[in-house]
Amino acid sequence: MKAVLIPGDGIGKEIAVSVKEVSDALDTGIEWKEFSAGAEYYDKSGKLLEDGLLDTVKEYGIALKGPTATPVGKGFRSINVQLRQTFHTYANLRPVHTIAGVKTRYDNVDLVIVRENTEDLYKGIEYMLDEDTANGIKLITRKASERIARFAFEYARKNGRKKVTAVHKANIMKYTDGLFLEAFRTVAKDYPDIENDSVIIDALCMKLVTDPSQFDVLVAPNLYGDIISDLCAGLVGGLGFAPSANIGDDTVIYEAVHGSAPDIAGKDQANPTAILMAFEMMLRDHGMEDKADRLKKALEDVIAEGVHTTKDIGGHAGTKEFTAAVVERLK
Ligand code: NAI
To answer: For the chain, N or C: smaller number of CB within 10 Å?
Structure first.
């Protein structure tokens, strides 16, 4: 199998090494084609994406991506948003579950967030009305809303999940979130075997931190989905444990939920678990269930043992030591 690897910025380069080492240890036979992208590459070359990246992602249909930095409030548009729009990866699948050995408030978190990935305020339709007034457009379509709702119900059905909950603020945003909710309710009728309900985003945040076990699959428009993913990552030990897949009809881009972590970049302190869990998702989706299971177990064992864990969860190991321990378990 051929796959594109985009290490990206900051800790991306360190955790991409972990992926390659683990891939070799598992003997996946994956031929990685590596491309540069991101703010650091831009500073060097004046380009955000290396030539050939887009064509190769299109050709292979599979990419594993490290984080890419985006300037705040100025500069170029997010590469992630561009990639998601270019490859129409309309669903962002973000499973979140408790991992033995990671100390957290709850020991029973098992949630899946399905985030609409192409529209909403992330469409980037923003402009200045005058010097002191900025306007941003929240774009929601019936087509994309129904498509993401259907994705969530199909996922629930295939993965033995019991309930899908729509996340919205339709009491205030009656047209945009109202349409999202209406589309969800229309699609839900086709899935009588799966329970469905809805929750207002602010109430959801409170409920998630007080009792996350009330939820199963959450489907949300882009912005709410982004925010609750980080909240849910916090429930299971932080961003080091949150993988994702950007899924389109022809292309899937797997990545960790976290960013380039400039505060720890280049210091051998990054926890590579999230990107390795994203790699696990990739293996599972491409007929390598057994290897995915082995990787899952190796990660869980190293974390539960607690000897070679990274600083973010109270350990003392660096990225390299943690990766070496995982590789050792895979032998
Ligand atoms: P961040 O996720 O990079 O970092 C937030 C905090 O979590 C930091 O303290 C960081 O050290 C820690 N952290 C993140 N990942 C970690 C890991 N694997 N191991 C240990 N600690 C980890 O978020 P921040 O600082 O808001 O963003 C930094 C840059 O990353 C920005 O330019 C942002 O645009 C970009 N970003 C890129 C994403 C992507 O490419 N998918 C996603 C989120 C942010």
So the answer is: C
Ligand 1 center to 258 CA (angstroms): 4
**Would you give the distance in Å from CA 312 to the centre of its chain?**
19
Q: What pLDDT digit, counting tens, does each position of 57-110 carry?
A: 999 999 999 999 987 777 777 888 889 889 999 999 999 999 988 989 999 999
Pocket of ligand 1 (CB under 6 A): 11, 67-70, 80, 239-240, 255, 258-264, 270-271, 274, 312
Rounded-to-integer distance, Cα 62 and Cα 246, Å: 10
Give phi and psi for 316, each to the nearest 5: -125, 0
* Residue 122 annotated as catalytic: yes
Determine which residue's CA is closest to atom 15 belonging to ligand 1: 258
Q: Considering the entire predicted model, what is its pTM?
A: 0.94
